[in-house]
Amino acid sequence: MKIQSVKGLQVFDSRGNPTLKAYVTLSNGTVGEALVPSGASTGQFEACELRDGGKDYHGKSVTNAVNHINTILQEALVGKDADCQATLDEVMIKADGSENKSNLGANAILGVSLAAAKAAAAAYHMPLYRYIGGISGVTLPIPMMNILNGGAHAANTVDIQEFMIMPYGAKTFAESMRMCTEIYHTLGNILKEDHFSVSVGDEGGFAPDLDSDEAALAYIVKAIAACGYEPGRDVFIAIDAAVSDWYKNGAYTLPKRKITVSRDELIDYFKALKEKYPIISIEDPLSETDFEGFASITKQMDGTQIVGDDLFVTNEKRLARGISEHAANAILIKPNQIGTLTETINTIRLARRSGYNTIMSHRSGETEDTTIADIAVAMNCTQIKTGAPCRSERVAKYNRLLEIETELGAAGSFGKR
Question: How many C-beta neighbours within 10 Å does residue 98 have?
Answer without folding.
Answer: 12
